[in-house]
Design brief:
Blueprint: H1 2-7, H2 11-43, H3 50-53, E1 57-63, H4 69-81, E2 86-90, E3 105-109, H5 114-120, E4 125-130, E5 146-152, E6 171-173, H6 180-189, H7 203-213, E7 228-231, H8 240-243, H9 246-254, E8 258-261, H10 267-270, H11 272-281, E9 288-290, H12 297-302, E10 305-308, H13 313-321, E11 324-328, H14 347-355, E12 356-359, H15 367-375, H16 378-391, H17 398-416
Parallel strand pairs: 1-2, 1-4, 2-3, 4-5, 5-6, 7-8, 7-10, 8-9, 10-11, 11-12
Helix pairs in contact: 2-5, 4-7, 4-17, 7-13, 14-16
């Protein structure tokens, strides 16, 4: 017993030791991969991206997927408006950014997967802005030639990131002050230096609200003769499609309503087999649609009510379209995520009862009545407005405040180098 106590390591310390080991191993592995990629470029008469050979850039914005253009476009527009030079690097060959005709913002496709990370790991910049978690944890390493890394969110919630998702960023741009508490607790638990956490609002929510204000109703194709239900789950073993699957879709179909199923983009790779089976069993029809649009705006606008689990799209729907929400009881498993360290519920779990109705498993067969009750609730409507004011500060000013922060930080970083 004496010796077993001496060998005991508490879970937090054990996780930190494991992380340190992973970082050491991954540094060696990815350094070797980077060398192989460089060698491949030369052997195949290719070239290392010109951006790596040029002088150090003031600002590089990196997007790991085209779906995040709604986050970055307002920022790029503001940089262009102020005539501030910037490089926008994307890992999507068909990113809408590549179609923009900017003068000061240079948009480039840097490759997908490890090719993109090889470029990022050799990046020469004073500041890098990204919405990608996991910096300096796995493939994406901090470049020794880049001074300052800034993270911006793509959801107006406290982020549901895998462990250590934001640990090695220098700054995190917040949508509202409510997000800071969790991040500060993680810093303290892991003995990390304090990040800068300015509150700037949400660029993509600002853009969505602007679109809504000028929306042409005839483009929405909203059905007038029947209710349209949008099922928009997250992904993973705690999400709706994995947990309930066929049973839930059968219940939706039985309502007789118009149904739109919009899986999380990550499901296309992480749950591909499940999706293919469900799409085959529930094919597109007059009242059933599978939606995989890159832009979620129009599908949200068409819906009368949304059903989800813990996905951030719930807040997009509630804040922009004042959309009714039903959220399912999925017994969320926090173990792969940062929230596990804090032994407390997700922020979105604490506010969902104010903005929508929880659907417990026993009520799945009574789904039609639950939908009718939730759509007509004035209590939930008032709750949505209250939570929006908490989660979305500085409405309409996010791009301006983000660029203000970047400009001031750039001057500070240059003065120190």
């Amino acid at each position: 017993m004496k010796y077993s106590l001496l060998l005991y390591i508490d879970p937090a310390t054990g996780a930190m030791l494991f992380t340190a080991l992973i970082r050491i191993v991954s540094t060696v592995v990815f350094a070797f991969q980077k060398f192989l990629l460089k060698l491949k470029f030369f052997v195949l008469n290719g070239h290392i991206d010109k951006a790596l050979e040029e002088d150090k850039s003031d600002l590089v914005i990196f997007s790991d997927h085209k779906r995040y253009w709604n986050v970055f476009k307002p920022i790029c527009d503001e940089l262009e408006k102020r005539k501030i030079s910037c490089k926008f690097w994307t890992a999507s060959e068909d990113d809408p950014a590549l179609e923009e005709e900017y003068e000061y913002v240079s948009c480039s496709f840097i490759g997908a997967g490890n090719k993109a990370y090889a470029v990022l790991n050799m990046m020469r910049a004073y500041i890098c802005l990204a919405t990608t978690p996991g910096l300096d944890v796995y493939q994406w390493k901090r470049s020794k030639h880049t001074d300052y890394y800034i993270h911006t969110f793509h959801s107006p919630s406290v982020p549901l990131y895998r462990m250590f998702g934001l640990d090695f960023y220098d700054a995190v741009l917040l949508n509202g002050s409510f997000q800071e508490d969790m991040l500060r607790k993680l810093e303290k638990l892991r003995n990390l230096p304090a990040k800068e956490m300015p509150i700037v609002g949400s660029t993509y929510l600002d853009a969505m609200e602007e679109r809504y204000a000028s929306m042409e109703v005839e483009k929405i194709n909203k059905t007038t003769d029947n209710i349209t239900v949008l099922l928009a789950p997250s992904w993973g073993k705690s999400a709706i499609l994995t947990k309930y699957g066929r049973r839930f879709l059968e219940a939706l179909k039985a309502t007789g309503y118009n149904i739109i199923v919009r899986p999380h983009p990550q499901s296309l790779t992480a749950e591909k087999k499940l999706l293919e089976e469900l799409k085959k069993e529930f094919p597109n029809s007059e009242r059933w649609e599978w939606n995989f649009d890159n832009d979620n705006y129009y599908v949200l606008a068409r819906a009368d009510i949304m059903i989800s689990d813990f996905s951030g799209i719930i807040l997009d729907n509630a804040f922009i379209f004042d959309g009714a929400v039903i959220y399912t009881d999925t017994n969320f498993d926090p173990s792969p995520y940062d929230i596990w360290w804090l032994n407390e519920p997700l922020w979105i779990e604490t506010v969902l009862p104010q903005i929508g109705k929880q659907l417990i498993e026993e009520d799945i067969e009574n789904l039609k009545n639950v939908i009718s009750e939730t759509i007509n609730s004035e209590t939930y409507k008032k709750g949505r407005e209250e939570i929006k004011n908490i989660a979305w500060e500085y409405k309409g000013k996010a791009a301006e405040l983000t660029v203000d922060y970047i400009v001031n930080k750039l001057a500070e970083v240059k003065a120190q180098t």
